[in-house]
Amino acid sequence: MKILNKHFTIGMAGHIDHGKTTLTKALTGVDTDRLKEEKERQISIEPGFAPLHLGDGSIVSVVDVPGHERFIRQMIAGVSGIDLVILVIAADEGVMPQTKEHLEILKFLQVKKGIVAFTKIDKVDEEFLELATEEIVEELTGTIFEGAPVVYVNSLKKEGIPELKQILQKELEALQEKHVTGNFRLPIDQVFTLKGQGTIVRGTITEGKINNGDTVEVLPRRQVAKVRQLQVHNKQVEQAVAGQRVAVNLSGLSKDSIQRGDVLAHENTYDTTDTIDVSLHMVENLQSPIKQRSLVKVHTGTAEVLGKIVFFDRNEYDGQSEEEVLCQLRLDELITCSRGDKIILRRPTPVETIGGGWIIQSKGSVYKFGQATVDTLRRIKQGTPEERVREAFSRRDMLSMENLKREAGLVDNVLVLLEEQGLIVNVTGQIYAFEPILKEKKRQVTDRIREYHVMNPLRLGIPKAELFSEFSNSSSIELLDFLLGKMETSKCVRRKDNLLYLDGFEPSYPKQWQKRMEQVERELASAKVTPQPFIQYCEKAGLPEKETHDLKYFLLRQMKAYPLDDAHLIDGHEFHVAVDYLKSQTVEEVELSEIKEMLQLSRKYLIPFVELMDALGVTEREGTKRRWL
């Protein structure tokens, strides 16, 4: 069983004091009760996160969510990014009120996988445990935990922990990863500062990936910042991807300008909204009907905002049916979300979870009351051909026509029309790509090459292999090859050997080092045909190691200099002056001794000089002579 390189989050859910935090510590070795108040009151207020090392070498995140009723808000934020839930039930108490509310929330969030963990098994005898199991299995019928694996643990003595880890590994293997290929999105659930580090945000990446040094923005206020450092489970990394719990050190923003519920994303990749169209299902046994335009608390991702619920086919919902309700939520604040995001609704007073579902359109319009609007929302829910095609390509960047038909649920003539409109693009044979993804990828590739030029102005371009490696997590080699072919055809990107560069780019000295590099060039020329080791000129000019390396290959690439040996360069102009002089003093050939005499060269320089003439095709060796070509 292998889930190596996959990234998942496991949630601990259940009633207060049923042993979630203790079980998390037994699994991971980490105490997630980190706040002083939590230590004093022995309950979890904030979601706590810990890394879990599984047997195959992979690491997944474990989130211990609060169980107390008053902390349901934090619980929702904690489970919004999870892939699998461990429902923790104390063997001596069984299913309790908050257990049931957690089950409702998990249902609305459409978490697919679950494991039941009986804790505190030392407090009951075997016969009682067997009866409790039968009762709870019956209670869980109709939930995601129906038929789920059951494990019995004593967290303090680590009994049952190895078995639980094995079950986790097996269950996670069957799960599909989050979309690494989508636009990066991180719902923020924690914001803090560290002395000497500045502002840090934490969260679980829901889509895409982020790299150290990226420019990002905090939504909905669109505050731009630079990524100074990334950490995954307290280890510094250069990149983090969907499914990973990550801490992002941001430069340029204060802690007070960011709050839980904000979203971190790359610039101009997500919109904000205060009107969302949704598909809802309500809980059974509502305390009172939900009236038209009732005030509700809306939870999505880590955001919690107030809003009004707007029905189009009724004036209230009494909770007597299990039908789907297509309606709209008009929010008091802007949020960042996408089609397909899950939501939870709670009533501010009396406090209760009233329903949940998913966003069918993240930017709703103003609609008239009536069945026609509900029919429109149903069509939106089912998705336009473009939306369904976009969803299919969000999982894989290239698809065969047959796979596209199956995954998008479209017939041939619709796909032909989409191809004619340029929405899907034939890559090779019957393999297709999605034009908006190609357009975004082209922008990313262009930006990366431009960034490379800025960071390495003396180099002609980025090596193709390096560019492909950087995009390997989000794009296939075939798609990148196709895209670069189109970019070369349109002449926005040029290629020389294995180097890629933007049209119009010419290597040049960086402004901050220009004078020093020009000094090196002058001194190299003044040495004529007997230069000192190249590094000595650079050290004298005060050039760092990287700039020395870049300058050397810039001079060679531009043929402003030639290599005499590994340590010495000869100025290109002075080399040709010397060659012209030798030619003027001889006829068809020249002896080594004559070259030595005419140029006043020691053997140290003589042999490299004549070998350079041979290598450049100026001469051809014949014994101790060189014949002019």
How does this model look, in words?
This protein has 629 residues and is of the alpha+beta class. It has five domains: 9-173, Rossmann fold, CATH 3.40.50.300; 185-266, Beta Barrel (Elongation Factor Tu (Ef-tu), domain 3), CATH 2.40.30; 273-382, Translation factors (Elongation Factor Tu (Ef-tu), domain 3); 383-508, Winged helix-like DNA-binding domain superfamily/Winged helix DNA-binding domain (Arc Repressor Mutant, subunit A, Orthogonal Bundle); 511-628. The protein is built from 19 helices and 34 strands. The radius of gyration is 33 Å and the shape is elongated. Residues 35-46 have low confidence and may be disordered.
Brief rundown of the structure:
It contains 19 helices and 34 strands. With 629 residues, it is of the alpha+beta class. Residues 35-46 have low confidence and may be disordered.
